[in-house]
Write a structure and sequence with these properties.
Shape: elongated
CATH class of the largest domain: Alpha Beta
CATH architecture of the largest domain: 3-Layer(aba) Sandwich
CATH superfamily of the largest domain: Glycogen Phosphorylase B
Number of domains: 3
CATH topology of the largest domain: Rossmann fold
Oligomer: single chain
Helix content: 40-55%
Largest sheet: 7 strands, parallel
């Protein structure tokens, strides 16, 4: 497979989990093949930034959506974009959203009889239930979404919970398997120094317990629930803590107002957007990652937290918690702010269990993109009927090792046989001339001395040996013929 096309209905400078997944796919796939990302024009984008990426970016026109921070892609209004897809020469289509850009990718795959893969990133019913309000409207939209996914050769769910949701509730009929997300974060080398930098940067007391949220500041993530649960935990006796929010989004003002309303001005710190090194330090500094979202399917932030050994506290019913075993590598609270508050207090009260769960979170839940994308490329090649280079090299390395061992064992023996051609001819003449029969009869009468080598007089010994030599000659002729034909 020489070129893959990744199709997504939003792109940088907007940042969300799906965009980060596609970017990590694209960056690492360039080690194996050419990559083109097909996406819309988004607010504030620049061609210069696109050209700096290690893969090609092709954008289509888009229309702004009032009241939302996303734009509406309009590839059908962009003939240049359509022409670029048609001339792209891609060998496989991988869509990461089922809307206009994703649909364009699937249509291209069907037109050119190419494999099409879809990743199931989101719980789309949740996205559309509130704005559409009617069951009929929701069914129409979901029907369109599922027609796109069901047209694909294979769908990849981001965890087992999402796979079950799509198959049982959404009507997915295309073949589906689980393909987990990962992170490009690395564990901080010096957690003590990381904590010092976070404390100095954000004014966090060195002895404070830190809770963290990373992501879009949007109430759809249930971050207002987090604040109310922390206010309740404070009433129940939680002291000396800081709640850090790292990210930007449309509900920043609403969040700030809720902080004031709940009297958490001293405890809540808005960090804004940060670079990756600071994010890694924030995760390392945090005692718990608070993520009661019922919206997310499989958020990257929980994997980033696990990378630093920071366990996540989820809410019961969250699909994004499907990879977690409660009490083993993470925590899941019963519904309700009071339950969530009490769960926080219980976690802090059991330091031995926390240490065990923290270590298990890193061991079980931390995946890096290099390993995941290597498997992704292998799946791409399988869908294209090809063998990926890493597997090919590994397989042929074993073939070489086994063949080299056999040849090294056979070669000295063959060289010895070649040197003994005259001896073979002598045995053939001995048998054919009648001398062998004469000597055999003499030995039977006892006319020959007892202390001589009489191996050649054993009945059928020489004929059997000469038959074996004939078989060897036949095998060698077949070998020479087969290898000579192959080399041509």
């Amino acid at each position: 497979m020489k070129k893959v096309g990744l199709f997504i209905d939003t792109w940088y400078p907007m940042v969300d989990g799906v965009i980060k997944v596609v970017d990590n796919y694209a960056r690492r796939l360039t080690k194996y093949c050419d990559v083109v990302v097909f996406c819309p024009e988004t607010r504030g984008y620049s061609k210069e930034d696109d050209e700096k990426r290690p893969y090609k970016v092709v954008r289509c026109h888009s229309l702004p959506i009032i009241g939302y921070d996303y734009d509406l892609p309009a590839p059908v209004l962009d003939p240049v974009f359509e022409a670029q897809i048609l001339s792209s020469g891609i060998d496989l289509v991988h869509i990461h959203s089922p809307f206009s850009v994703g649909l364009a990718g699937v249509l291209y795959a069907k037109l050119h009889k190419l494999p099409a893969v879809a990743t199931l990133h989101s719980q789309y019913k949740q996205d559309f239930e509130k704005p559409l309000r009617t069951k009929m409207g929701l069914n129409v939209v979901m029907g369109g979404i599922m027609r796109v996914f069901n047209a694909c050769d294979e769908c990849w769910a981001v965890n087992a919970g999402i796979k079950d949701l799509y198959e049982a509730d959404y009507g997915l009929t295309a073949p589906c398997k689980v393909r987990l997300n990962a992170t490009d974060h690395r564990p901080v080398e010096d957690p003590v120094e990381a904590a010092r930098i976070v404390n100095e940067t954000y004014g966090v007391p060195a002895d404070a317990t830190v809770f963290l949220f990373v992501g879009r500041i949007n109430f759809i993530k249930n971050i207002d629930f987090t604040l109310r649960a922390l206010a309740r935990a404070k009433e129940l006796g939680l002291k000396n803590f800081r709640m850090l929010f790292a990210g930007r989004g449309q509900d920043e003002d609403k969040l700030s107002a809720l902080v004031q309303e709940l009297g958490l001005q001293d405890e809540v710190i808005m960090c804004g957007l940060t670079d990756r090194p600071m994010l890694e330090r924030l995760y390392s500094r945090a005692k718990l990652f608070l993520f009661p979202s019922l919206y997310d399917a499989n958020s990257l932030v929980q994997i980033e937290a696990a990378c630093q050994g920071t366990p996540t506290l989820f809410l019961e019913g969250a699909r994004t918690a499907a990879t977690v075993t409660p009490g083993v590598n993470g925590y899941i609270s019963a519904p309700g702010e009071d339950n969530y508050a009490r769960a926080i207090l219980d976690i802090l009260a059991d330091s031995d269990a926390y240490a065990r769960i923290s270590a298990a979170a890193r061991r079980d839940l931390y995946l890096n993109w290099d390993d995941v994308v290597r498997e992704v490329y292998a799946d791409y090649c399988a869908l294209c009927g090809e063998e990926p280079a890493p597997q090919r090299v590994d397989r042929l390395g074993l073939v070489y090792r086994e063949l080299q061992e056999r040849v090294s064992q056979a070669l000295p023996a063959l060289e010895g046989i070649v040197k003994d051609v005259d001896a073979i001819h002598e045995l053939e003449e001995y048998l054919d001339s009648g001398l062998w029969l004469k000597d055999f009869e003499a030995d039977e009468r006892g006319d020959l001395p007892a202390d001589i080598h009489r191996d050649a007089l054993t009945e059928d010994a020489v004929p059997d040996l000469l038959d074996d030599i004939h078989d060897l000659r036949t095998l060698m002729n077949r070998f020479i013929h087969a290898t000579a034909k192959r080399r041509k």
